[in-house]
From TrEMBL:
InterPro entries: GAF-like_dom_sf (IPR029016), HTH_MetabolicPath_Reg (IPR050707), Tscrpt_reg_IclR_C (IPR014757), Tscrpt_reg_IclR_N (IPR005471), WH-like_DNA-bd_sf (IPR036388), WH_DNA-bd_sf (IPR036390). GO terms for biological process: negative regulation of DNA-templated transcription. The gene is iclR. It holds the Pfam family HTH_IclR. GO terms for molecular function: DNA binding; DNA-binding transcription factor activity. This is Transcriptional regulator, IclR family, C-terminal domain protein. The lineage of its organism: Bacteria, Bacillati, Bacillota, Tissierellia, Tissierellales. Residues 63-244 form the IclR-ED domain. Signal peptide: none annotated. Keywords: DNA-binding, Transcription, Transcription regulation. Residues 2-62 form the HTH iclR-type domain.
Amino acid sequence: MHKPTQRVIDILNFLETKPKGATQTEISNETSIPKSTLFPILKTLEENRFLMCEDNYYKIGIMMWCIGQNFSKSSAILEIIKEKMQEIVTEVNEICQLSILTGQYTTYIEKVNPKQPVQLISSVGKMIPAYATSLGKSLLSNLNYDELKNIYPNGLTALTENTITDIDVLYKQIEDIRKDGYSYEVEESMRDIICFAVPLKQKDKVKYAISVSIPKYRATKSKKEKIIKCLLQKKEEINEIINKFE
């Protein structure tokens, strides 16, 4: 545990329960933070508008409200995306997943399972190198060549025999994603799995990506075409809605 950070959290958690505010002495007594240590923390939080002070009573400030508003917007956006993911699964009867880019990785934050006897085993919170997945490639599609190289300064490591390990080949695929509107991978992160994905943009920035994964033996030409068409359609619908959020 990082003690200075924990002290800030303790202060905010305590004041969240005190709508009328609390004095420095009350905060010190509740959090067990010495007054000499507490005062500069309170002043810094006040100067950055995370706290406000009126008549020596400290209260939650406007920046905490702003953060809460942003969280509410994000939650609303995720609910909208999940509804569209359910529509995708209903139409193509394959798993649909949602992810975000966290550093070098794509992180799965939501999934909707199909009614299939054989389906991909996946879990929310799982992280995979972005370059090896269709979701990750869609999330990387906003980057220029130098930005891409900066994310992977040590190169690309193969997860399977089909994983792209050449940064130039990866960037060529990213250029194709920007042109075609979708990404794909064939057994690059997992054997016997093919995946298609689309980037979701808010204010011209890729924020999320959604995908449909399918076992190789079910990946007929007509099935793949249906998945791509469905993803592109839902991408437009989602982008139109989420870009109404400020």
